[in-house]
């Protein structure tokens, strides 16, 4: 539809920017923007748990939570994707509390975990830019920049930025264009 999906070949793979619901994508892993309990919530976390079914919550209960910036992997259950990689984004507190570093850690640790499992295709939502209040125009270059830096060295061949609005997709496309110019 219109400008989406946007695809670009970059060193180490392909980056795709789409507008849509991440629970509908069929990739090796979808990333969940969770909270430290890993026991569900609103936003994309709620949507992933609803679509995956109660087996996902049951597996999450065995994980013992997750620190901000870290990532943990589960199966995808009733999702079209085989795995869910749960990460916990930073709550925005004005930008001087290490938020950008922690957000980059979310993307980097999710990619490292996917690589450790030999996965080829992964999809990310715009972590922290909903309930956690990270400004979307500041988050997009962190997300895209971290992926560009890691892609040459890992098993992942395709990274999908699954944006929930066209405005978010434009920010990711602009970041990609700026960082690959
Ligand atoms: N597919 C793709 N993106 C989505 C979807 C979806 N189905 N639903 C929402 N988004 P948020 P956060 C977008 O709030 O800011 C939860 O309660 C949304 O528009 O889901 O990291 C957790 O349990 C936004 O761009 O995550 C935590 O407590 C992006 O996903 C807390 O929210 C992230 O928004 C985490 O907050």
UniProtKB/TrEMBL annotation:
Pfam families membership: Macro
Cited Gene3D superfamilies: Leucine Aminopeptidase, subunit E, domain 1
A GO term for molecular function: O-acetyl-ADP-ribose deacetylase activity
Domain Macro span(s) in chain numbering: 2-180
SMART domains: A1pp
CDD domains (UniProt xref): Macro_OAADPr_deacetylase
PANTHER family per record: GANGLIOSIDE INDUCED DIFFERENTIATION ASSOCIATED PROTEIN 2-RELATED, MACRO DOMAIN-CONTAINING PROTEIN
NCBIfam families on file: PRK00431.1-6
UniProt-recorded name of the protein: O-acetyl-ADP-ribose deacetylase (Regulator of RNase III)
Organism from which the protein derives: Chelatococcus caeni
Organism classification: Bacteria, Pseudomonadati, Pseudomonadota, Alphaproteobacteria, Hyphomicrobiales
């Amino acid at each position: 539809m219109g400008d989406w999906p946007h695809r670009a070949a970059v060193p180490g793979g392909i980056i795709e920017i789409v507008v849509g619901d991440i629970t509908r994508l069929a990739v090796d892993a979808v990333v969940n923007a969770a909270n430290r309990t890993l026991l569900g919530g609103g936003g994309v976390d709620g949507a992933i748990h609803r679509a995956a079914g109660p087996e996902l919550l049951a597996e999450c209960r065995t994980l013992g939570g997750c620190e901000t910036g870290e990532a943990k992997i589960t199966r995808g259950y009733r999702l079209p994707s085989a795995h869910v990689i749960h990460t916990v984004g930073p709550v925005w507190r004005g930008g001087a509390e290490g938020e950008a570093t922690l957000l980059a850690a979310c993307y980097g640790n999710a990619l490292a975990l996917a690589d450790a499992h030999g996965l080829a295709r992964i999809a990310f939502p715009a972590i922290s830019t909903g309930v956690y209040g990270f400004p979307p125009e500041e988050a997009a270059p962190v997300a895209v920049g971290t992926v560009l830096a890691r892609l040459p060295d890992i098993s992942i061949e395709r990274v999908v930025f699954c944006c929930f609005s066209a405005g978010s997709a434009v920010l990711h496309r602009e970041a990609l264009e700026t960082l690959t110019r």
